[in-house]
Predict the 3D structure of the following.
Amino acid sequence: MSNKAVFLDRDGTINRDVPYCSRPGDFELLPGAAEGIRLLNEAGFKVIVITNQSGIARGYFTEETLVRIHDRMKELLAVHTAHVDAIYYCPHHPDNGCDCRKPKTALYHRAAKDMGIDYQLSYVIGDMPLDIQAGRLLGCKTILVTSDKNSSKDINEVPDYITGNLIQASKWIMRDFRQVRTR
């Protein structure tokens, strides 16, 4: 059975984009993020975080610290009765040439295989053009969230929707998914 999913970027989409967030105490949810994730949970979407974390390769923090940061994210989401189903991250330096660093799609493919995800029923939400590019490569619908950055980004790949926060993105997904299902 194929599942529908929402692939979420982390920094700048779920939480404030602190350069190389290296401590759990630096992790702060953006307004509306937990509520948006809860809406997706309630609608039966798998919520999967896909994030580039080159701070590990740069020596700014360890993978153990990243686990603690993600535990903090899960705790903050749980307060709002929200959760993520899985987290996949690229620990490599951008110059490494790995296949898992967005906009490359190896992490998405791993998640899809692990969880039986159908890209045609799925969405990618992020705050950067590379998130939109990855979503397009996969055949997912894409949403650019501008909540934590200047909204005048240089975007080569036009997203299906642009909004200021994750809750508005989630509401758009609910409307879009209903329309697709009723056709």
